[in-house]
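User: I'm putting together a teaching handout on how sequence relates to shape, and I'd like one worked example. Could you take Transmembrane protein from Desulfolithobacter dissulfuricans, show the sequence you're using, and then write out its predicted structure as tokens right after it?

Assistant: Happy to. First the sequence, then the structure tokens directly below it.
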Amino acid sequence: MEEKNLFYMKPTLLVAALVLLLASATTVLAADQVQMELSTSVIRIPAFYNGTTLEASGTVPADADVVIRVMGPREDVHLKEKGKVFGFLWMNKTDVTLGNTPAVYMLYVPENRGSELLSPELGLGYQALEQEVTLEPASEDKPFVLGEYVKLMEKYGVYDDHAGTVRYTDTPAGERHFSTTLTIPPKMKPGQYQVQCYAVRDGRVSGQTGETLTIELTGMPALIANMAYNHALMYGIIAVCIAIAAGLLMGMLFKGKGGAH
């Protein structure tokens, strides 16, 4: 009896597998074809680096809009919330932690389309980010705390809503070519960042693709960082020697000026 039951189960499992396979294939076929490339996938930070730019371009269906998101690794951010003590003194009152917070969150959208394309329903924009970020203690006002943090990050240039920066050109093939200039501020640390391109139409994300952007140190900054992390003792000795030499040099300069009077 057991062998007979096993024999009859096999066609059922096969049919179920075929149904799942066809469903997956239908989902893949339903997704819009999105292509994007970056003018460079590696940015090297030399001495006196002050930020840079790169180009992102590609194609989406002719009736689709484009949103490009540059996002850094997620991390826990520890903040101190200030408040009035005794009614007039501003002091640190509460320690709060924003969890699952991107180190970088920059959005690029076409002109006059930001309100439609950046929404929690699409998973894009600051309102969508608010749903992803956690706050401890939970009793605190998350919209307020996150809003203040976003303002701070916008000053550093690592959070931004670049409205009107995506440019379109229709192509003969019925596709829409897009391009934009991505701003890489000096506050973006070495590491890997995800550049995602979303095609949006009929109120939903209909397709997407992505590239990895790597930022790395080169030249003297790379040498100093390597010495600090891998040769801490030597780095400390050299730092002390430089400090002593700088002190002696300043002493000689000021002594020379004093003797001239």
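A couple of points you could highlight for students: The longest strand covers residues 89-102. The chain is about 35% helix and 40% strand.
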